[in-house]
Amino acid sequence: MLLKGSKLFFIIEGIITVVLFLGFIFFEYPLIRNFLKSYYISNNRLFLLIILHFSLVIINIYYLIRMYSQFKEKVIFPINKITNILQKFSLGNFERTVHYPWSNEVGDLSNAVNLIGKRFRELFEEHSFLKENFYEVINSIDEGILLLYNGTKIFYVNKKASEFLSVSQENIKGKNLLSILRNYELIKEVECALNSGEIKEVNLNFIRKEGSYKVIIIPVKENQRVLSCILLIKDLTFIKGLEKIKTDLIANISHELKTPITSIKGFTETLLEGAYKNEELALKFLNIIDFEVGRLYRLIIDLLNLAEIEAGKLKIKKEKVSLKDVFEELGFLFKKRFEEKKLKFYYKSSVEEIFTDKDKFMQILLNLIDNAVKYTPEGGSVWIEAENKEGEVLIKVCDTGIGIPEEDIPRIFERFYRVDKARTRESGGTGIGLAIVKHLLEALGAEIKVESELNRGSKFIISFKNSSQIINNQ
Ligand code: ADP
């Protein structure tokens, strides 16, 4: 069905060619001509035959030219175009199509090329979409991923893996993994996974920096042959840290509870064994039991408070708070304890009001003044200063107490951390007060720092940095 539309051309062209061939034989071979002339053709007819012959030559030339121009239009040009488009396909450009309006073999070829182009375009778009999303997804994963090819050559590292290995994500393709991993144990396991084709898991305490890491090595196979592998790096440092905090916390709480309970149990047993008969002794023991029960109660309340704060259940309700009113109220609340220890209390403030949560602010100052009272020997001083310094409101709770050794200062805000364990337990402290203070200040958007000198005193300095918390400065 070559060039269906041109069939007529071929038939006419065929007839003309046959007639011309016969004419050629007639004119070129005198023997035949003479023979025909002597018997059938007159001179006039011969002339007519020559005219006819020449007319046919002209018609034939016309048809040939027409055929050639049609052939060019319908075959040569479209095929050139198809070749051009196929070359574009090979470069990954599937946008172009062939427009061929005639229905013939070239038309079928054009349709096939257009179909291939369409399918490739779809596949290409699908591939680009998957590729982009794939990299986007694995780049946002919180685990390190290394894709290898040809054994141990790096194909891709995601953001986390580049952090773990301290390498850049760019220009990494093609580098050998073994030249990047400085960990012999991991290199050995990668080689082992490549040889055996089995998934391997390695726990490491170090990759580029210290921590707890788990690396899973997954071999990539094709026809049972291991080609390369994928490395998955999980950073378990934080989880391990949390686990340690949890076990430490349980150990601390158990220890904190055990001490007063042992004491309560001991004195109760002594009373039951007969000490209750001695009124003076019984009263002394009951006072100790009361003190320990009080400590247990405070410990439980503090723990509950801390748990609530840490669970984020804290509701902050900010309002205008008059510092003078707060300091007066604190003086009143601690009046009895100041008197018991003969402590001098005063405050000086150049700031009138701040914008904060009054209850939480009071709770913070109560804890700090309670400590100041606990750790200041009789006859000392406890005071509060408030000032506005370069846009910050500073509130300092100061005492002339025993002070805190420099090396302990960074740790006193940890739960159950005490400088002098025996001494502070004696004072009835729970070891949680400053942890609560720290969390409350975080919730209020404020910070705290400590200045202290042994046997001279301590200063707990709260800073409200956010200017919205400062209302009126004198
Ligand atoms: P505690 O209930 O034991 O006082 P805190 O968390 O309030 O627990 O304080 C932690 C530790 O910090 C205390 O045990 C004490 O050793 C030290 N500390 C806190 N405030 C002061 C202070 N004003 N002077 C000296 N030491 C202090």
How is this structure best described in words?
The chain is of the alpha+beta class and 474 residues long. It has 4 domains: 1-124; 141-235, Beta-Lactamase (2-Layer Sandwich); 240-309, Signal transduction histidine kinase, dimerisation/phosphotransfer (DHp) domain (Helix Hairpins, Orthogonal Bundle); 315-472, Histidine kinase-like ATPase, C-terminal domain (Heat Shock Protein 90). It has 14 helices and 13 strands. The strands form 3 sheets. Strands 2-1-5-4-3 form a 5-stranded antiparallel beta sheet, sandwiched between helices. The chain starts with 6 loop residues before the first helix and ends with a strand. The mean pLDDT is 86. The structure holds adenosine-5'-diphosphate (ADP).
Brief overview:
The chain has 474 residues and is α+β, with helices and mostly antiparallel strands. Helices cover 55% and strands 20% of the residues. Helix 8 runs antiparallel to helix 9.
From the 3D structure, determine the CATH topology of the largest domain.
Heat Shock Protein 90
- Tell me which CATH architecture of the largest domain applies here: 2-Layer Sandwich
Order of strands across the widest beta sheet?
2-1-5-4-3
Low-confidence runs of at least 5 consecutive residues: none
Number of domains: 4
Q: What is the mean pLDDT?
A: 86
- Would you report the number of β strands? 13
Share in helix: 40-55%
Terminal CA distance: 103 Å
- Bound molecule kinds, no repeats: adenosine-5'-diphosphate
**Class of the largest domain, according to the CATH hierarchy?**
Alpha Beta
Instruction: Provide the CATH superfamily of the largest domain.
Output: Histidine kinase-like ATPase, C-terminal domain
SSE order: HHHHEEHHHEEEHHEHHEEHEEHHEEE
Please give the oligomerization state of what you see.
single chain
How much strand content do the residues show?
A: 15-25%
Global geometry: rod-shaped
- The total count of helices amounts to 14
- Alpha carbon gyration radius: 49 Å
Main beta sheet = 5 strands, antiparallel
Question: What structural class do helix, strand and pairing data support?
Answer: alpha+beta
